[in-house]
Design a protein that fits this description.
Helix content is about 45%, strand content about 15%. It has a five-stranded antiparallel sheet. The longest helix is centred in the middle third of the chain and has 17 residues.
Length: about 170
């Protein structure tokens, strides 16, 4: 992590501590952060999906991550080996910020609405009104959370549990 930090700081980014990890910014905009896991450490690019991954080293952590991409390292030798490539990616990320490019996120309407929730929205007009009044981010969080279980019984239980919060205009984590 110390070697990654030195590389990032050499690219003239400002260092801050966010979410308990070192985060590097350009003109107060998050560009990259360093985080550690049990088996590896990683350099995470906030707008990594927009980067030209000419070396094929960017990883999308899960299928649900839309913008961020990371480069993983299991030892310092890998970092030293890729130092010039890392700097090129960091400078490309800075150029994305200078150009003001934005990641196009999936629209709320593109998310799957589980049948169990759809039924409740149809049966309880106040629930539908309250859900539609939530911010798009809160709507997506609920749809994602309700869609995760494989069993209908679990999806139904989740929907039932959160109906009162939705009716009160609250998000999943409020």
């Amino acid at each position: 992590m110390e070697k990654l930090r030195a590389i990032v700081l050499d690219c003239q980014l400002s260092e801050e501590l966010k979410w308990g990890v070192p985060c590097y910014t350009f003109q107060n905009t998050n560009v990259v952060l360093i985080h550690a896991f049990k088996e590896y450490c990683a350099l995470l690019f906030f707008k990594g999906s927009l980067l030209n991954d000419s070396h094929g080293i960017l990883i999308q952590q899960t299928e649900n991550v839309q913008a961020g991409r990371q480069i993983r390292f299991s030892n310092v030798h890998e970092i030293v080996e890729k130092q010039d490539i890392l700097k090129a990616y960091i400078y490309d990320a800075i150029e994305l910020e200078k150009a003001g490019l934005k990641v196009e996120f999936k629209k709320t309407t593109e998310y799957n609405i589980p049948e169990e929730f759809k039924q409740k929205l149809d049966d309880i007009p106040a629930l539908k009104t309250a859900f539609e009044a939530l911010t798009p981010g809160r709507q997506r969080a609920y749809l994602f959370y309700f869609s995760q279980p494989k069993q209908s019984k679990t999806r139904e239980s989740r929907v039932e549990k959160f109906i009162p919060l939705i009716l009160n205009g609250k998000g999943l984590d409020d």
